[in-house]
């Protein structure tokens, strides 16, 4: 009975958001992540579950999660919070090959993306920390708190390997490996 009451209290605490249709999903992908990324609606129960797990730790708990995917070379993971007809929606964009190649590391990747919600939007985060690198390191530390240091660092290493392989296939596809290597060195040196 206590569990039922707790569930009922949880459901009453958040407004009903209704289902987001395919057309609105596509429009929100474009608005959040940019038409140039050629994102399309995507469904992956595992990624959605990870996002919902970590959103429960933020002020966005209970909000809808939309997933978008692209086949663009070098596409990793992005996030944004956009307003829909039903209120704020958390949008995650991923590259199809990125999802296929990262496998077990995706939970830590999604923790990092949701960690940006804690920091506010990227421009706000950069203003507060003084640099993109410090902002990303702060978000990495949030993810470490959620998934553990070993999992977060393993994910960064996997992204570096993936980025190197993408760059070998498509020379200008991915330029983030040097920045990730620097973040990895800093995080490895901290308790």
Report on this model:
This is Peptidase M48 domain-containing protein. Keywords: Signal. It is globular and about 45 Å long. Helix 5 crosses helix 8 and helix 7 crosses helix 9. The N terminus is likely disordered. 59% of the residues lie in helices and 14% in strands. The protein has a four-stranded mixed β-sheet. The chain contains nine helices and four strands. The longest helix is centred in the C-terminal third of the chain and has 21 residues. It starts with a helix and ends with a helix. It is α+β, with helices and mostly antiparallel strands and 191 residues long. The protein has one domain.
Q: Give the % helix.
A: 55-70%
Distance between the termini: 43 Å
Structural class of the helix and strand makeup? alpha+beta
Shape: globular
Number of H- or I-type helical stretches: 9
Number of domains: 1
Count of beta strands: 4
Spatial extent as radius of gyration: 17 Å
How is the main sheet built? 4 strands, mixed
Strand content: 5-15%
Mean pLDDT: 82
* Sequence of secondary-structure elements: HHEHEEEHHHHHH
Parts with pLDDT < 50 across at least 5 consecutive residues: 1-17
What can be said about this structure in brief?
By secondary structure, the chain is α+β, with helices and mostly antiparallel strands. It is built from 9 helices and 4 strands. A hairpin with a 2-residue loop joins strand 3 and strand 4.
Q: What's the helix and strand layout?
A:
Elements: H1 2-13, H2 22-33, E1 40-42, H3 45-55, E2 65-70, E3 77-84, E4 87-95, H4 96-102, H5 106-119, H6 122-129, H7 132-147, H8 149-169, H9 177-188
Parallel strand pairs: 2-4
Antiparallel strand pairs: 1-2, 3-4
Helix pairs in contact: 3-5, 5-7, 5-8, 7-8, 7-9, 8-9
């Amino acid at each position: 009975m206590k569990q039922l009451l707790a569930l009922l209290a949880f459901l009453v605490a958040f407004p009903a958001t209704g289902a987001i249709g395919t057309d609105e999903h596509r429009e929100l992908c474009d608005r959040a992540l940019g038409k140039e990324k050629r994102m399309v609606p995507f469904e992956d129960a595992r990624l959605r579950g990870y996002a919902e797990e970590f959103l429960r730790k933020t002020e966005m708990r209970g909000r809808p999660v939309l997933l978008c995917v692209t086949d663009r070379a070098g596409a990793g993971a992005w996030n944004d919070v956009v307003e829909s007809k039903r209120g704020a929606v958390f949008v995650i964009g991923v590259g199809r090959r990125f999802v296929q190649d990262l496998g077990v590391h995706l939970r830590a990747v999604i923790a990092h993306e949701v960690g940006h919600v804690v920091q506010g939007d990227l421009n706000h985060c950069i203003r507060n920390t003084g640099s993109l690198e410090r902002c990303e390191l702060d978000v990495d530390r949030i993810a470490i708190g959620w998934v553990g240091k070993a999992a977060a660092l393993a994910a960064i290493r996997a992204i570096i390997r993936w980025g190197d392989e993408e760059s070998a296939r498509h020379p200008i596809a991915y330029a983030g490996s040097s920045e990730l290597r620097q973040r990895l060195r800093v995080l490895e040196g901290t308790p």
